[in-house]
Specification:
The structure is a single chain. The protein is built from 4 helices and 15 strands. The chain is α+β, with helices and mostly antiparallel strands and 237 residues long. α2 packs across α3. The chain is globular and about 55 Å long.
């Protein structure tokens, strides 16, 4: 079991950790980590594990391991992996992570502006998208762009909370995603609250205030099936 530091503080850039396991493919498990594993449409973090002698192991990506809190740090090819018990300093590529946090938070705003069920989504460096169960084209790029930038400029606080499995079952409207259901069975589910804008289960990393997102624009709206519309956003700076 790994202590997931990014859940409580996504702004932590480094941490001390101990290697607890190496899997058969060379993946590294730590007792605690700031690296977010691929999931919920958000890519896994990259970065380095720094050893006491100053050498570094480049981490190409991070994926989920066994159990709800399992995290595997995947080294870039051609590197020697240190032994179990080795102490390392874990450091994420902060510039990339921060851009992912900004886009992820903006997609929460997008899901509140476009009031249709979400059928899918993806986050990448500097851009992202949501797919909506929208039978007819009832939205316009410029109108969505304007509304998103209004919400961003209004500086809404973003906070993390928790809800029990039973409470979530009693409030099904909190779940906007049709294709991906929040993980249940652990007794509680993590909630992201964009104050006055959006409240929904989410395990990803987000900025603390919408003003941190910066200007965005709707890049395109595409028809992806009879009732599916894909809205893609990107930073406009």
């Amino acid at each position: 079991m790994t202590e997931l530091l990014f859940r409580d503080d996504p702004y932590t850039k480094t941490c001390e950790a101990t290697i607890t396991a190496i899997n058969e493919r060379g993946g590294i498990e730590l007792d605690r980590t700031i690296f977010y594993p691929t999931g919920g449409g958000q890519p896994g973090d990259t970065g380095v594990l720094r050893l006491s002698d100053g050498s570094e192991i480049a981490i190409a990506t991070t994926v989920k391991g066994d159990g709800p809190d399992g995290v595997i740090h995947v080294p870039a090819e051609g590197q020697d992996v240190p032994a179990v018990g080795t102490t390392v300093t874990a450091a994420i590529d902060w510039d990339v992570r921060h851009r992912l946090m900004r886009i992820h938070t903006c997609l929460h705003l997008l899901s509140s502006v476009v009031e249709y069920p979400v059928t899918g989504g993806q986050i990448s460096d500097g851009k992202g998208r949501l797919d909506f169960d929208m039978p007819e084209m009832t939205v316009e790029k410029d109108a969505i762009t304007e509304r998103l930038n209004e919400l961003i400029a209004q500086a809404h606080p973003v906070s993390v909370g928790w809800i029990s499995d039973e409470e979530l079952t009693a409030q099904p409207d909190l779940v906007k995603t049709m294709s991906v259901k929040p993980p249940m069975g652990q007794g509680r589910v993590r909630l992201i609250d964009v104050d006055g804008c959006d409240l929904q289960p989410c395990g990803g990393t987000h900025v603390a205030n919408t003003s941190e997102i910066g200007p965005v624009r709707v890049r395109k709206i595409e028809k992806k099936g009879k009732q599916n519309r894909r809205i893609s956003i990107e930073f406009s700076e």
